[in-house]
Amino acid sequence: MQSFSEYFDRVAGGAEVLFDYGPVPVLPEDEYWRTRAGYLDDLMFHALLRPLIDVPRPLLQEGQGDTWTRRSLRLTTLGEQMLAGQAHWLDQAP
Q1: How confident is residue 41, by pLDDT bands cut at 50, 70 and 90?
Q2: Assuming Cys at both sites, which of 31, 49, 64, 70 could form a disulfide with 27, CB separation 3.0 to 4.6 Å?
Q3: Do the beta carbons of residue 60 and residue 53 sit within 8 Å?
Q4: What pLDDT shows up at residue 2?
């Protein structure tokens, strides 16, 4: 695995790119996913979603399906309001 500086020199052309074009990503996209795949698998992703679903005023609603991996998700009205900045999660007392 190459270091960031090796990646930066090879792909981005070194410090001149920062001067000419501004900020660049710290990790290349494939590197980003490779470093996170070790702990954010399907089960962990599901665990992170449950607190947005299993509360009195959920942000997400699950569709029908035999297993959770086959269920669709949609934003609830509250979820849409939160994304629009019209509601705040802490006000919902989750």
Answers
A1: low
A2: 31
A3: yes
A4: 45
Q: What is the pTM of this model?
A: 0.55
Contact 8, 24 (CB under 8 A): yes
Q: How far apart are CA 60 and CA 80, in angstroms?
A: 9
Residue 15 tokens, joined: 């410090």
**Phi-psi region for residue 85, left (φ > 0), alpha (ψ -120 to 50) or beta?**
left
Domain segments of the chain as ranges: 4-36, 42-92
Rounded Cα distance between 74 and 30, Å, is 28
- Report DSSP state, residue 23: -
CA distance 61 to 22: 40
| Cα atoms found within 13 Å of the Cα of residue 57, Cβ hemisphere only | 14
